[in-house]
Amino acid sequence: MSVVERTCPLLLSGIDGDNTPKMDELSKKLESGNDNEKIEALKEIIHCVITGIEMSRLTMQVIKFCLRSRDHRIKKLLQIYWEVLDKKYPNSDKLKPEIILVCNHLLNDLKHPNEYIRGSTCRLLCRISEPEILEQLVPQVLANLEHRNSYVRKNAVLALMRIYALHNELVPDAPQRVYEFLMKEGNPLAKRNAFLMLANCDLRNALDFFLTVNDKIGSYSETMQTSILELMRKVCRQLPVPKSIFVKCAAYLLDSSSNAVVYEAANTLLSLTPLDSAINRALEAYARLLQSESDQNIKIVVINRLDSLKRRYDRNLRFVLMDILRALSTPNLDIRTKILALVLELSSPQNIEDIIGVLKKELVSANAEADPQITLYRGKLVETMHQCAVKFPQVAPQVVHLLMNHLDANVIMFVKEMLQDYHDLQESILQKLLENFAEISDEMVSRTALWIIGEYAQTKELIATSIDAIMRALGDLPLHTNESNEEEGKCKSNLLII
């Protein structure tokens, strides 16, 4: 596989044709004693290599004139160069002879007195896969696990994890060494990296460590707690151990100060136990995240998660439905729409009264604002209340008068159905319709409203009130269009002039 295929699935090259740097020019820059020129040459070489241009003839020049440089910028560029360089002959598994010199250079960097160079070299080894190179470096990587600086230790663990994953025969005792390292390590990041290696390479040792520190998990960092939760799920899938040993810990992490940990703890708890008490606690944690999290994208992730759980935990979700409804205070329309859709699916005869109460308050507060987004939200609220009233007729009398302040095609048909089914509400519904009749602008809604008035206005008082409302909506007679009114006005003006 070429370096281009290994490093970039989509290639956007800025080098083509006449713009390709010449080998002689790059060689002169590398041979110069000026570090800035060497840096410029290295950047051009790296760019050419990752865009598929053959630069192997310059490898010895780079080794000869750049390896001994003490400039840290050159050191960093060299690490990028060793990563992208083709270290074997094309269509062959044979290592190029000059790479032996690179191995010695990397070994010296792993012993370098500068902690940053040691740590970054360990990091570089995570991106090198050739066993001939790694075999010579393994002893020093293991030695760096004991280094006094945590930056070196945490990257040495990552390098060891990568080497063991690719070629476990090079360091067969790596899991045991990392387990011993983990038990005495104090740095949170180094500890998390070591635990991550055990979780990926040796589940039993990772489980032993978890059981040892189970009561101390609250003092660990966010990343460590997240890794432990991932271990719980992985152990339950792959090892024959009782899930109950993890339930208490997962439930404890639901009260973490980190929202990421709370989300993962809720996911883990749902996968560990079918007990209603645990399920309810996990769902309550999701609802709290909807209220406390400020990132809109995370809110959408949580809502989608709740939506995916509604079939399995329909009954449990109804207990936290009012907490979910509190998230309607979020100004984002997409989030509000998703919440309303979820609430509509979770509505039941037992909770519909509470749902309608919340939606009424939201609609009243939305009426006070004229923002376009609020207008769209108001429409969503009206639609949801309409669907609730259709789904649960017992709440229809509570919402019909409120919905008539927002007459559209759906609402007017709903009013028509209400008049047919609830004879005792006919007079009050008609009175409300006549109050809002002048505000109707849609012709289909107007036709339906006129039919309703003609059909159900049966008393003398209602008929008189209806005629007055219709005449007020029509305006002064005879009826004129705006154009005819303007022409009539011009005629009157001309007559006055004459």
From TrEMBL:
Residue ranges annotated for the Clathrin/coatomer adaptor adaptin-like N-terminal domain, each copy included: 23-476
Transmembrane segments: none
Organism: Reticulomyxa filosa
GO biological process: endoplasmic reticulum to Golgi vesicle-mediated transport; intra-Golgi vesicle-mediated transport; intracellular protein transport
SUPFAM superfamilies found in the cross-reference section: ARM repeat (SSF48371)
PANTHER family reported for this sequence: COATOMER SUBUNIT BETA
Pfam families tied to this protein: Adaptin_N
Protein name (Swiss-Prot/TrEMBL): Coatomer protein complex, subunit beta 1
Lineage of the organism: Eukaryota, Sar, Rhizaria, Retaria, Foraminifera
A GO cellular-component term linked to this record: COPI vesicle coat
